[in-house]
């Protein structure tokens, strides 16, 4: 919508001349080239059609903008320069006429290109916001996978080798080192940089500088031509330079929450100075008011910004009429100011929207990376903590006896191999475990640690995800028993009834100080993690001291569907 309004204003020109057939055709073609839904029209044939209409349409800015939109790479700028040169040769009646043709072609072409591409970049960034998040998660998985392989994988490989050499001291040292690494959170990583397009926000600045510089030169030539050597010239030229400079300062691309330094003062100064040429002797120069109104809409906040901008624009016809300017000229100059306001405000607001979408993509990627990092941390705690605890509770008592048998070393090597497999599956999220398998493994690990396992199973066949969730509960619960108690016996009991499936894990002794493991708030995060996971499935977790030991009871809906 915005680009269509701007194109209409450029086609009509400041004189509001009724366009002929060629100008009308050029306008319709340019709308098709600039509109996102008809961008498929961009190609050599439409560019040739625009070039063919140029001698009759008299709209070189349209052709210049089309060249920038259609031609790829750096060659577009060479062709753009050719169009500018052709526009200069089309009107050589005076220095001002030639300069005005050059300036209008450059500024209009850049504005058309800028508004069109900014809108498209915004749409592209919005449509691909999920791709950046996915790429960020992939990079995070690779980074964490490499880190886990170095910090824990190498230790587990070393444990397997030490077990093969019957080096129990080496097994214990490596298991403790790996356990420390498993408890450490990986350092954060930056979101990957987005590959720049032909018009990322940072590349808008050179175009904005060029548009303002061209406007300043053409406007200065116009003022000089209107008042050669007149007394008002000494006022108009400095005012022109200051207002254009302030407007460039206000419209420089920056993040949405960022504002120019001393914005309240500089904006007030731009508005006030832009109105001065309305009251100086000679022909009033009103275009600067359009720049100031655009700056007000860009920087001010709330509904009152529109009131201030409207008041500044309405000051133009009011002042011109009061000074006796012809009604037709008043209408033309007022519409010219409105067009300037729309163009410069449109560039600024579209740039801001691109920044906003760009920032939103970055924030979504950071959230995705944070979630992935939390998932990996939970899996490391739940899966690797279990295996490393099992290795330690198997190795340390055997080392104290002084004569561990071959079976102990085989058990340690087997646990290390399973843990290594879990480690390499964690970054990809492909750690699939089963309840039956974990119950069997828990019995073996408890036996190896000198704790008698008592299994009473009645859960039957469960949905896959329910089965996996309960398998992780078994692994975490047994890990807590191994790490925090001196249990002689541990009961693992499952059952179904009244639409629920339940799992009970109970051990008969507390920790080394004779205390039961607290349900929440302990040094580890096992019980809170379990409570969060089971709660997400509509289940409940009860964890409390029982007799001289500890009991964990988990209930889940028996028919919960896979997720």
Automatic annotation (TrEMBL):
The keyword Transport does not apply. GO terms for molecular function: phosphorelay sensor kinase activity; protein dimerization activity. One of its GO terms (cellular component) is membrane. It comes from Murinocardiopsis flavida. This is Two-component system sensor histidine kinase DesK. SUPFAM superfamilies: ATPase domain of HSP90 chaperone/DNA topoisomerase II/histidine kinase. CDD domains: HATPase_UhpB-NarQ-NarX-like. InterPro entries: HATPase_C_sf (IPR036890), Sensor_HK_TwoCompSys (IPR050482), Sig_transdc_His_kin_sub3_dim/P (IPR011712). The chain crosses the membrane at residues 49-71, 203-224, 230-250, 262-283, 303-323, 330-348. The keyword Magnesium does not apply. Residues 372-426 form the Signal transduction histidine kinase subgroup 3 dimerisation and phosphoacceptor domain. Keywords: Kinase, Membrane, Transferase, Transmembrane, Transmembrane helix, Two-component regulatory system. It holds the Pfam family HisKA_3.
């Amino acid at each position: 919508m915005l680009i269509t309004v701007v194109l209409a204003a450029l086609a009509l020109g400041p004189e509001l001349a009724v366009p002929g057939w060629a100008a009308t055709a050029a306008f319709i073609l340019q709308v098709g080239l600039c509109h996102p839904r008809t961008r498929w029209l961009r190609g050599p044939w439409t560019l040739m059609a625009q070039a063919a209409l140029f001698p009759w349409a008299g709209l070189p800015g349209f052709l210049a903008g089309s060249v920038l939109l259609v031609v790829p790479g750096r060659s577009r700028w060479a062709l753009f320069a050719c169009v500018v040169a052709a526009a200069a040769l089309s009107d050589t009646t005076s220095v001002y006429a030639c300069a005005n043709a050059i300036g209008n072609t450059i500024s209009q072409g850049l504005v058309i290109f800028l508004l069109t591409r900014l809108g498209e970049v915004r749409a592209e960034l919005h449509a691909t916001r999920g791709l950046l998040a996915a790429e960020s998660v992939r990079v995070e998985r690779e980074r964490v996978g490499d880190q886990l392989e170095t910090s824990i994988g190498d230790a587990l490989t070393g444990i397997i080798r030490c077990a093969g050499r019957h080096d129990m001291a080496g097994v214990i040292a490596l298991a403790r080192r790996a356990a420390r690494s498993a408890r450490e959170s990986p350092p954060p990583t930056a979101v990957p940089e987005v590959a720049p397009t032909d018009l990322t926000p940072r590349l808008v600045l050179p175009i904005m500088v060029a548009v303002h510089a061209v406007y300043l030169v053409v406007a200065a030539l116009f003022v000089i031509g209107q008042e050669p050597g007149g007394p008002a010239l000494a006022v108009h030229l400095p005012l022109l330079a200051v207002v254009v400079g302030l407007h460039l300062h206000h419209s420089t691309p920056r993040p949405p929450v960022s504002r120019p330094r001393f914005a309240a003062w500089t904006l007030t100064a731009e508005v006030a100075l832009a109105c001065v040429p309305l009251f100086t002797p000679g022909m009033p120069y009103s275009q600067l008011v359009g720049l100031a109104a655009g700056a007000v809409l860009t920087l001010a906040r709330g509904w009152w910004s529109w009131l201030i901008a409207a008041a500044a624009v309405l000051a133009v016809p009011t002042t011109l009429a009061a000074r006796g300017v012809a009604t037709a000229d008043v209408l033309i100059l007022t519409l010219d100011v409105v067009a300037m306001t729309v163009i410069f405000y449109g560039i600024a607001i579209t740039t801001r929207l691109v920044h906003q979408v760009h920032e939103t993509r970055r924030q979504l990627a950071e959230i995705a990376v944070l979630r992935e990092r939390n998932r990996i941390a939970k899996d490391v705690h739940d899966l690797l903590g279990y295996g490393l605890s099992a290795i330690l509770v198997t190795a340390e008592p055997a080392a104290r006896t002084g004569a561990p048998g071959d079976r102990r070393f085989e058990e340690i090597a087997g646990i290390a191999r399973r843990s290594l497999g879990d480690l390499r599956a964690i970054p990809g999220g492909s750690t699939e475990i089963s309840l039956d398998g974990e119950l069997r493994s828990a019995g073996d690990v408890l036996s190896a640690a000198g704790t008698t396992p008592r299994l009473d199973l009645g859960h039957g066949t469960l949905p896959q995800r329910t089965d996996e969730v309960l398998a992780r509960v078994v692994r975490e619960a047994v890990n807590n028993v191994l790490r925090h108690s001196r249990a002689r016996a541990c009961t693992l009991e499952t059952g179904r009834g009244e639409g629920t499936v339940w799992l009970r894990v109970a051990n008969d002794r507390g920790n080394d100080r004779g205390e039961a493991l607290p349900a929440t708030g302990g040094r580890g995060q096992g019980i809170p993690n379990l409570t969060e996971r089971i709660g997400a499935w509509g289940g409940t977790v009860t964890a409390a001291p029982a007799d001289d030991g500890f009991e964990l009871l988990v209930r889940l809906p028996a028919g919960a569907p896979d997720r």
